[in-house]
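Hey, I was hoping to borrow your eyes for a little while. I've dropped the whole record in just underneath, so have a look:

——
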Amino acid sequence: RLLWLHKNYLEEAISADDEARAKLLIYSGAYAYYLKGQYLQSEELLEERDVVGIFEGALLQAEIRWARGDQEDSLKKIEELYEMFPYAPDLLSKLCEYHREAGNYDDSRRYGALLVMQQPSNHSFRIQLMHTYRESGDRAALSREIDRMFSAFNENEIAMRNLAFFASADANIDLMHRV
């Protein structure tokens, strides 16, 4: 559907000299190609009309680089974006996730903690930080964050269901019973 929109409306936006709409349509097409694993087509679209010059385009370019295995370049690009947009939760989330996947647990913890501080009412970010604690072997910090989850989100059915999924993935039977 995104590719259909891209293909059917891009020329109209360009001929109307509607730069913002053209960039949105190009980004939509690039994102659709990214989701299909067609990274070359996605990057080519992003470079068209300088879509990598906008926040979403630059972030998608970093995600493509990560998907292609260029972890160092991807992290560098996202950290540069973070310098420009320090209050963007999408960037902090990606930095937390990618540093964790790369085994950089200290950096993952730092970005995860910043994310939770900036977005304390978002249970998903707390669970993301809990993944870092689990994978790094920091059971004490994990236990504290689980207690904070119960304290802050005990009445939130979606948060508790996501915590149960976390417990299941961790094979943490005690936590599953507690949820």
Observations:
- The chain has eleven helices and no strands.
- The radius of gyration is 19 Å.
